Amino acid sequence: MEVAEKILTVGGVLLLTYAFFTGFLLSRARDRSPVGPKYLILAHTEPLMQGAMLLGLVWAVRLSSLDGRVEAVAAALLVVAASIQGGKELLNWRQGIEDEFAHQPRPLGYYAARVQSPMASVGLIILVVGVLLGL
Which residues span the domain enclosing 111? Predict the structure, then answer.
């Protein structure tokens, strides 16, 4: 198993574990209210989706013909970006933010999104190029 595959696998499993933790928090919040808080719902669902995505991207690494170090950088960027995304949603919930784009002053979660988005984009572009070259 390549380094990039290990990074994606460990990252995916840890994100799924984090999603189960936030799911527990969400179930507790739902005991008190018929509707869960928006950012707590996002803190639960985004790691579920991104954890599964990271596990699926292991196949992209297997198809890629790029150097293993480049693939490892792409995998690390994707895992860190996905982790920031899930963490920022939990932070928004804990801070009582209702809309990170409308809230003034901008909450920390808003700036975290500005950091994670380019990281995820670069990581994904690298893997897309690697897969296309590997076909």
Answer: 3-134
Confidence band of 9 (pLDDT split at 50, 70, 90): very high
Global confidence as pTM: 0.93
CATH label of the domain that carries residue 69: 1.20.120
pLDDT at res. 65: 96
Residue 12's CB: how many other CB atoms inside 10 A? 23
Q: Domain count of the chain?
A: 1
